[in-house]
C-alpha cells in the first residue's frame, strides 16, 4: 500500500504539470509600437536597476543590481547578448507588456510605473499572463521591482 502512495505522489504532480497548456506564440499578443515612442513607451526609455526580485514566492537576491534597458521598442538586460522586443497595452488594467523575439514563446507580463519605480510581474514563457503582482510556489511567475537610474 505504501508503494502505491509513493508512486502516486510522484506520478500525479507530473501528470498535472504535463496537462498545463503552454502557448507557443512567438510574437506580441498586444499591438506592437508603430512610429515614435510616446506615452508609457517614452516613460520606460532608459535604465532601471533591479531592487527586488522573487520567483514562485522566493526572493532572488542574486538579481538585485541587474539593469534593465528600454529603448524605443527594444529591451535587454545588462550582461546579456542581444535584445528582445516589447509591446505595451497601457490602457489595460493592469497594464500589459509582452516580451518577444519571434523565436521563443512570448513572455506575458503586467507592469506599473510609480514615479521612479517600475514593477513587472511576468509568467514563464508560454504561460498565461498574471492578473496581479504576486508570486506563489509553482506559479511560474517572477515579480521584479526596479528603480530608474
TrEMBL record:
The record's listing under InterPro entries reads: CHP03067_Planctomycetes (IPR017504)
Q: Which domain of life is it from?
A: Bacteria
* Residue ranges of the region described as Disordered: 129-149
Q: Which residues form the signal peptide?
A: 1-16
- The UniProt record lists the keyword Secreted: no
Keywords, in A-Z order: Signal
Q: Does the keyword Signal apply?
A: yes
Output this protein's name: TIGR03067 domain-containing protein
Q: Which organism is it from?
A: Luteolibacter arcticus
Amino acid at each position: 500500500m505504501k508503494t502505491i502512495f509513493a508512486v502516486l505522489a510522484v506520478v500525479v504532480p507530473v501528470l498535472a504539470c504535463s496537462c498545463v497548456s503552454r502557448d507557443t506564440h512567438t510574437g506580441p499578443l498586444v499591438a506592437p509600437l508603430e512610429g515614435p515612442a510616446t506615452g508609457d513607451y517614452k516613460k520606460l526609455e532608459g535604465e532601471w536597476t533591479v531592487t527586488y526580485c522573487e520567483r514562485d514566492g522566493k526572493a532572488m537576491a542574486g538579481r538585485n543590481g541587474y539593469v534593465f534597458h528600454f529603448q524605443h521598442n527594444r529591451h535587454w538586460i545588462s550582461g546579456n547578448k542581444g535584445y528582445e522586443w516589447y509591446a505595451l497595452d497601457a490602457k489595460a488594467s493592469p497594464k500589459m507588456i509582452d516580451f518577444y523575439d519571434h523565436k521563443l514563446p512570448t513572455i506575458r507580463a503586467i507592469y506599473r510605473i510609480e514615479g521612479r519605480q517600475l514593477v513587472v510581474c511576468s509568467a514563464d514563457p508560454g504561460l498565461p499572463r498574471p492578473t496581479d503582482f504576486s508570486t506563489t510556489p509553482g506559479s511560474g511567475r517572477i515579480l521584479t521591482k526596479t528603480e530608474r537610474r
